[in-house]
Every structure is written in structure tokens, then in C-alpha cells.
Write a structure and sequence with these properties.
single chain, 275 residues, alpha+beta, seven-stranded antiparallel sheet, six-stranded antiparallel β-barrel, 13% helix
């Protein structure tokens, strides 16, 4: 009985400690929120041709169906995305060089992908992965790689930077993913402010968070997982984050959206790709 009471007391303390925090959900799983929230890059803007030449759309085929995610070209043969976009996938189609997903300039394929070995689906730590194209893609005006931060920038927080996130996420409550590419600006917030919403087990040093730059309900949502969060530096786009999670309260809840910090994974990316 004493043991039982002790276990129950620990459980109660654990539950009490979690009460103030929102539950994060992968942006892939945000489709389950469709009945009660606007699931899209919410309150964003349509992309122009060539505006995000590094953005790709991923069609992942599993044993039971298909999923839609985003990703970014980081070379002519490697795509950076979220680990949760790769989980359970057997093969990918990679839509490149277009703002209309049905009309790709190039349609790539892959059965070769890598999930970070420390990915934790319970708290979404290390939610990062790589996809290797079966055939390297030729660059064009609409197909270009995005720059990644150098490994010596791990300590940078990018606090208060205005970053841009893009993708083909949903544009209606119950409809399919968007047939066209959209984007929105996100203001980077401190990890302390983000941890106050999601807790310190979710928001770790390798997490970066942001809120809508122009309105609180601007965010990512289902179909945007794995896509790039980028800032402008030296006249070029620099990817500082990978789309990972939103609040279970909904994509338009005003809660921060969560990303993986690319600065913390440069050595791993280099070890796998040579980039």
C-alpha cells in the first residue's frame, strides 16, 4: 500500500508539472486538428515563381497510404526534412521547381533516407532527417539549394530575427494540402518563452521557436512538416530551422510553432552528406 501511494504521488506530481504546458504535435499530425482549426500556413501569402527555389514537396508512400511533407534542397542530391516525415515511409516522390505541386519542373524519387539516430518521437527532440535523390537534379532558376549555417554558429539564437517559412500545407479546415506554395513570416522567440508553453523536455537547445510576425495566428500546419525556416543573410537565404511541431490546441491558437535548429546538426549533416 505504501508503495502504491508513493507511485500515485509521483504520478500526481508528474501530471501537475505538465498541466501548464501545451502538448506539441508534429506538423504531419496536425491534420487531426482539422475539425477545429484552420490547417494551413495560416494567414500567409502565395509564393511567386522562383521565390523559394530550394523548397520541395514530399509525397511519402507508406504501407497503408501516403503523406505530404516539405523539405529543402541542400545540394543537387540531398533534401533536408523532419525525421517524423520519414518515419514509416517506403519511398518518396520529390516535387521540385514549382509553386504548383501538380506541375513539377522535376519529379525526383528516393528510397534512400536517414533519420537522426537520436530522434525521439515522444518529445520531438532531434526531429531531423535526410533524403538522397536517386538521381541528382540539375539546377535552374526555379531549382537551387539553400545555404546552411556554418558549424561554428551553434551558439547563435537568432532571437527576434524575422524568418520565412514556406510550404504546401492545407488552406481549408478539411480540404487537401494546398495545390500551390505559400509562405509566412515568423519572428524568432527565446527558448525560455517557448518552454513556458511546451515545457523544457520539448524545447531544448536544438529547438528554435517562433510566432507570427504580423499576427499571432500565423503559423505552419499539416503538409508543412520538414520545410525550411530561413532568414536573409548576405543577399541569400540561410536555413536556420526545419518545421517540426505546433500546439495540439490548433495551428491558429497563437501558440509558438517549433523547429529544429540546423546549427546544432551541421556536423551530423556533414558526416552523412559531405556538405
Amino acid at each position: 500500500m505504501k508503495l502504491f501511494l508513493a507511485v500515485m504521488a509521483c504520478l500526481a506530481l508528474t501530471q501537475a508539472a505538465q498541466l501548464p504546458f501545451q502538448r506539441p504535435v508534429t506538423v504531419r499530425d496536425a491534420q487531426d486538428l482539422a475539425a477545429r482549426s484552420h490547417v494551413r500556413i495560416v494567414n500567409g501569402f502565395p509564393a511567386s515563381p522562383g521565390q523559394f527555389p530550394y523548397q520541395v514537396m514530399l509525397r511519402g508512400f507508406t504501407a497503408t497510404g501516403a503523406l505530404a511533407c516539405g523539405g529543402s534542397l541542400i545540394s543537387n542530391e540531398w533534401v533536408l526534412t523532419a525525421a517524423h516525415c520519414i518515419t514509416g515511409v517506403q519511398r518518396f516522390e520529390i516535387v521540385m521547381g514549382t509553386i504548383v505541386s501538380a506541375s513539377p519542373e522535376v519529379l525526383g524519387h528516393s528510397t534512400n533516407f536517414i533519420i537522426h539516430p537520436s530522434y525521439n518521437p515522444s518529445n520531438l527532440n532531434n526531429d531531423i532527417g535526410l533524403i538522397r535523390l536517386d538521381t541528382p537534379v540539375g539546377f535552374s532558376q526555379n531549382i537551387q539549394p539553400i545555404n546552411l549555417p556554418s558549424a561554428d554558429r551553434t551558439g547563435e539564437t537568432f532571437l527576434d530575427n524575422i524568418a520565412t517559412v514556406s510550404g504546401f500545407g492545407r488552406t481549408s479546415d478539411t480540404g487537401p494540402v494546398s495545390p500551390t506554395k505559400n509562405w509566412v513570416n515568423i519572428r524568432v522567440i527565446s527558448n525560455a518563452a517557448c518552454a513556458a508553453v511546451y515545457g523544457s523536455s520539448v524545447v531544448v537547445a536544438s529547438t528554435i521557436c517562433g510566432t507570427g510576425a504580423d499576427a499571432a495566428n500565423q503559423s505552419t500546419c499539416q503538409g508543412d512538416s520538414g520545410g525550411p525556416l530561413a532568414i536573409q543573410e548576405g543577399g541569400a537565404s540561410l536555413q536556420i530551422g526545419v518545421v517540426s511541431f505546433v500546439s495540439s490546441a490548433g495551428c491558429t491558437s497563437g501558440h509558438p510553432s517549433g523547429y529544429v535548429r540546423t546549427t546544432h546538426f551541421r556536423s551530423w549533416i556533414n558526416s552523412q552528406t559531405g556538405i
